[in-house]
Specification:
With about 350 residues, the protein is α/β, with parallel strands linked by helices. The protein has eleven helices and 16 strands. Strand 10, helix 7 and strand 11 form a beta-alpha-beta unit. The protein binds threonylcarbamoyladenylate and magnesium ion (MG).
Amino acid sequence: MKTKYFTISSGESAQQVLQEAAELLKQGRLVAFPTETVYGLGANGLDAEAVAKIYQAKGRPSDNPLILHIAHERELKQLVTEIPANAQALIDKYWPGPLTVVLKRTTIVPDIVSGGLDTVAVRLPASKIARELIILAGVPIAAPSANTSGRPSPTSAQAVFADLDGRIDAVVDAGDCAIGVESTVVDCTTPVPTLLRPGGITLEMLMETLGEVEIDPALGGGAGYIPRAPGMKYTHYAPLAPMVLFEGEYPKIADLIVQETRTALAAGKKVGAIVSKETAERLSSEVVSVVYGSREQVGQFAANLYTALRSYDENPVEIIFAEGIPEDGLGLAVMNRLRKASSYQIVKATEKNK
Ligand code: TXA
Ligand code: MG
């Protein structure tokens, strides 16, 4: 299959391009498009056959359900049996935006969208381009992140191409995604809403609206817990080399990274590092270091995370050392992704190993 490439530059061409892309969606084809979080791989969310193609293109396990994207809040009613007050409060506050709510589904939602669950995940993105595309297609759009299953999510059209060229019908390129990590997934079918995946709407923001929030125990990553967002149990976001994550106080973790990179270089290894600007300045020039933010501006870490994880595709290394950040704000989502990307190879900086 030849993958069509659409670019959006001016407002006028945007309308034309989106019209063409929407036509493809109406025909049951796959179109990758930008949102404020990451690029999504879209298909008509009410057409089971079209949705099946998403799983195929991504190599995604069939028990991992998809998010339905809508363009207006009123489109939610047809998809869910009820909207509890706490879900409504979240919607009022954070839609459009990087918030996905999980609610009981109606029968118009195909089984394949929900991976066999009796619930459905729905989101109303803030991205104007995403919303315009959904409006023109005239149906809810099922869209997981537009990466090959297991790989870091794409925050640029180039990253989508790297994974899915030849496997999907089109990509709409509108530049880099602003937030850089996926939406926050909240299960609103429990008496107290449950955070299933940290994301663009922070835990602090959820608390502000809800007062209390349960946290899916599986987010701790401990053994024995089965995540309730099925997608959270698979290997994810992995770069193409083993990665070790350093967690704990700064600059203690920077000291450890400096030490470990030296040891690995001395052993003749090609070494990568995904670190802050501050730590990068302390590393040998032999280390292939990728700066993903500054300790002084945490939002940057989210925006650059997936590009950093993908940067070793072109320039392979044998081991990657990654620097953890504080878990407040977007830091919680960043650390959740880094832990998974490292397959839980984590070094905690303590007094002992200082
Ligand atoms: O920001 C985002 O959410 C992006 C953009 C494209 O909108 N989409 C995205 O989709 O990240 P995906 O498929 O990569 O991740 C969806 C997550 C998975 O962890 C999945 O298991 C969970 O949401 N999920 C979907 N439906 C669910 C349901 N009914 N119950 C529990 N978890 C669900
Ligand atoms: Mg994904």
